[in-house]
Amino acid sequence: MTILVLAEHDNAQLKADTAKVVAAASAIGGDIHVLVAGSQCNDVAQAAKSLAGVSKVLIADSAVYANQLAENTAKLILDIASDYSHILAAASSVGKDTLPRVAALLDVSQLSEVVAVQSEDTFVRPIYAGNALATVQSLDDKKVMTVRSSAFDAVAATGDAEVVALTQAISASTEFVSQTLTVSARPELGNAGIIVSGGRGMGSGENFAILEQLADKLGAAVGASRAAVDAGFVPNDLQVGQTGKIVAPDLYIAVGISGAIQHLAGMKDSKVIVAINKDPEAPIFQVADYGLEADLFDAVPALNNLI
Amino acid sequence: MKVLVPVKRVVDANVKVRVKADNSNVDTANLKMALNPFCEIAVEEAVRLKEAGVVTEIVVVTIGNKSAQEQLRTAMALGADRAIHVETDEELVPLSIAKLLLAVQQKEQAQLVVFGKQSIDGDNNQTGQMLAALADMPQATFASEVKVEDSNIVVTREIDGGLQTLKMALPAVVTVDLRLNEPRYASLPNIMKAKRKPLESLSIDDLGVTLKSHQTVLNVAPPAERQAGIMVSSVEELVEKLKNEAKVI
């Protein structure tokens, strides 16, 4: 049994998600190989080879893979798939884009957002915005799945795997035009220990400055509800929820967020939840460990002064 | 240009579902059903492309039991021209759905297939990508902006770190994200008109597709309940609790 893990990276750095997907692969058991598909991505391969439990790193370094377009990467994985019993990727925008294509080309079903491994063919995944957990046994000869990285702890960087270069460079018809990334000095949402999130109650994009101050003091990442994104307060990649990012930090501070089903789906596995809201009936208080009924414009600056 | 829009009937987004007592599945009996919100956005985008003169015909398709025809009527009230219903009582995995949609696509020869990025019940986020793979078409998932330029389509996608723009030749598959548009409401005259629009009903056999069994759902359980904690009376108390009780700051 050999497991292939698609590395999550930006050509320069290996993302922490990869170490978490390797942890899921270790729970399945067997040999673990990591595929780094990118351009000028040797540093990523060097980082991947140190992940505990990984025995081989495959590096496909070509301009074709620079933007990790699903069409190209799926064909590359298909090319080497005969060696593997399981193919895993993080449930990130790249993993979700690519793996269903791989699964369809292999004529196997895919399991999305796996949160627990029960055996080599049985896995647990949330459905209905996390309101039910389905235990699913795969009958396919190859198991293709995306892994919810917030459900697994990263493996240590203690290994030393061999690095093997792949020579395939499969080019497809999609053309990359441009990319705009949100630049931030704060930690990434998915890996932050503390997240401070704002909702409609923030009132405007300018008011998010008070959350950012608090976040900087706590070394936290800033998140948002869909309402805050739709109203244009913050960019969409900060959205936490069923259709945004799924997070599970040690501390999640929800400010001016009512707590709709779709938002809770993205954060209710956080260790400690704090809610600050002036509506005592807000559903967020039903999941909060500590609730404070107060006007956020008084409470957040006060919090900022005390920390 | 013809557009194919696959849509799905799901439990309304505001309903909190409960798991059946025998843990076989979630209980959807007597719940309010609706068009999947992402599918609504896909239909709206197709209608806007038609209003812009880019698209000539919009065909909506669904796979499911008889009552799913309700959602096809909704989609036609929003502006789709005709509908195809592939009738089955079985619950199918996305790969099987994609295979059926491939057969429909081959029959219809649409230049563009617009999907919702995921259904809010299965939360799979797979079907669009799978159809693209089976049909060997390029794909643009999680679209927040779509522009058709002659025989190409330019799509801006929502990715983890921000936005990305791709360009691809038609025919292509696009799956839509929440930010793409604000779906319209169906007016009463349009709802009445939709009743007279053509709705073709097909069986899986009609499409000549053989499906495999891919997985068994062993158990469906409610997630661990999270208990409500305590209400604190002041910011000072909150900070004190976080420092000394929860020890998280």
Got a strand count of chain B? 15
| Biggest β-sheet strands, sense, barrel of chain A | 7 strands, parallel
Strand content of the residues of chain A, in percent?
A: 25-35%
**Helix/strand order of chain B:** EEEEEHEHEHEHEEEEHEEEH
Give the CATH level 1 class of the largest domain in chain A.
Answer: Alpha Beta
- Beta content of chain B comes to 25-35%
What is the helical fraction of chain B, as a range of percent?
25-40%
Describe the structure.
The complex is a heterodimer of chains A (307) and B (249). With 307 residues, chain A is of the alpha/beta class. Chain A has two domains: 2-165, Rossmann fold, CATH 3.40.50; 189-306, TPP-binding domain (Rossmann fold, 3-Layer(aba) Sandwich). Helices cover 26% and strands 29% of the residues of chain A. Chain A is built from eight helices and 16 strands. Chain A has helices at residues 16-28, 42-48, 70-80, 93-106, 208-218, 226-230, 261-267, 296-306; strands at 2-6, 31-38, 54-61, 86-90, 110-114, 116-119, 122-127, 132-138, 143-147, 162-165, 175-181, 194-198, 221-224, 251-255, 272-277, 290-293. Chain A has a seven-stranded parallel β-sheet with strand order 5-9-4-1-2-3-10, with helices on both faces. Chain A is globular and about 60 Å long. The model of chain A has no long low-confidence stretch (mean pLDDT 96). By secondary structure, chain B is of the alpha/beta class. Chain B has helices at 37-51, 69-78, 94-108, 127-134, 188-194, 235-244; strands at 2-6, 9-11, 18-19, 26-27, 33-35, 57-64, 82-87, 112-116, 139-149, 152-159, 162-169, 172-176, 199-203, 215-221, 230-232. In chain B, the strands form three sheets. Chain B has a nine-stranded mixed β-sheet with strand order 11-10-9-12-8-1-6-7-13, with helices on both faces. In chain B, strand 10 and strand 11 form a beta hairpin. The mean pLDDT of chain B is 96. Classes of the chains: A alpha/beta (307), B alpha/beta (249). Chains A and B meet through helix 3, helix 4, strand 5, strand 7 and strand 8 of A and helix 3, helix 4, strand 9, strand 10 and strand 11 of B. Strand 8 of chain A pairs antiparallel with strand 14 of chain B, so a sheet runs across the interface. Chain B: One of its GO terms (molecular function) is electron transfer activity. Chain B: This is Electron transfer flavoprotein subunit beta. Chain B: InterPro entries: ET-Flavoprotein_bsu_CS, ETF_a/b_N, ETF_b, ETF_beta_N, Rossmann-like_a/b/a_fold.
